[in-house]
Specification:
Layout (H helix, E strand, L loop, with lengths): L1 E11 L5 E4 L9 E10 L2 E7 L6 E7 L3 E12 L19 H4 L14 H8 L4 H15 L1 E2 L10 H7 L1 E2 L1 H14 L4 E7 L9 E8 L2 E5 L11 E6 L8 E2 L5 E11 L1
Parallel strand pairs: 7-8
Antiparallel strand pairs: 1-6, 1-14, 2-5, 2-13, 3-6, 4-5, 9-10, 9-12, 10-11
Helix pairs in contact: 2-5, 3-5
Length: about 260
């Protein structure tokens, strides 16, 4: 499947006219970038690798505080959706380094707090069947409520309120999987069925010695998801970082099956 991406945004950056951007589709397992173009008026661009070597961060040095950005890409997706229940988990002591990092608690995913809950609620299941049960629990227990969370909301807050957006759903899956000794990482993606169209967050879990996309919101599928970046939680994959007081003027994210 081919996916087309069209992003436009205008921001007032304030005094510091330097911004880090994580919004370009990654050329990584299961997907290949066919075309990619990022234009920022009056900006000098450089790139550094993203977390775990997935994707890139763009460093944009602008000649004025106004950032006008346009990004277009076409990506071919080759990954297939596999039933989670058919896959096995790896014992924690046999995990490779790339997966071990995502077994630990992080700033927004305090997985150690949920170890008792995960054992009592999902302890009778193994491997992918356990992940499938966690995904269903998150989908059933949380209500999707725009504006219900902020950039400082942690998974503990979400567990208490039982509401949030894709960011919070992904954090909840990551925290419960890690608490159950299954590596899970936070992933930013583009997907054509996200409503309203926007940057989207899902989880990836380590089963059968590879990463697999899990979206508890039900808005995207592995075979139509374009991975942008991965990290321990939302802190690692923010689409924009700036040391000033950036103000949103306009933003549009369009994703379609090409």
């Amino acid at each position: 499947m081919k996916i087309g991406i069209d992003v436009a945004m205008d921001y007032e950056l304030g005094e510091e006219c330097v911004v880090f951007l994580t919004l370009e589709a990654a050329d990584t397992d299961g997907q290949h970038v066919l075309e990619s173009r990022l234009d920022i008026e009056g900006a000098l661009l450089s790139r550094i690798p993203g977390e775990s070597g997935i994707g890139t961060r763009v460093v944009a040095r602008l000649d004025s505080p106004l950032m006008r950005l346009a990004y277009r890409a076409e990506v071919e997706i080759t990954r297939q959706d596999r039933p989670l229940a058919e896959m096995d988990a790896t014992p924690w002591h046999d995990l490779p380094a790339e997966a071990m990092t995502y077994l630990r608690p992080s700033r927004f995913c305090q997985s150690d707090v949920f170890e008792t809950f995960a054992r009592r609620r999902f302890g009778d299941l193994e491997g992918g069947a356990k992940v499938a049960a966690i995904r269903k629990w998150v989908a059933d227990e949380l209500s999707y409520v725009p504006g219900a969370s902020t950039g400082t909301t942690t998974v503990v807050d979400t567990f208490t309120s039982r509401q949030g957006v894709c960011r919070d759903y992904a954090h909840m899956v990551c925290a419960l999987c890690r608490a159950a000794d299954i590596p899970a990482r936070y992933v930013s993606v583009y997907a054509p069925d996200v409503d309203p169209p926007d940057f989207h967050a899902v989880a990836q879990v380590w089963l059968d010695d590879s990463w697999h996309i899990v979206d508890p919101t039900g808005m995207c599928r592995p075979e139509s998801s374009v991975i942008v970046a991965v990290g321990r939680d939302a802190y690692d994959v923010a689409f924009m970082e700036n040391r000033g007081n950036a103000q949103l003027l306009f933003q549009s994210v369009g994703v379609r099956a090409a």
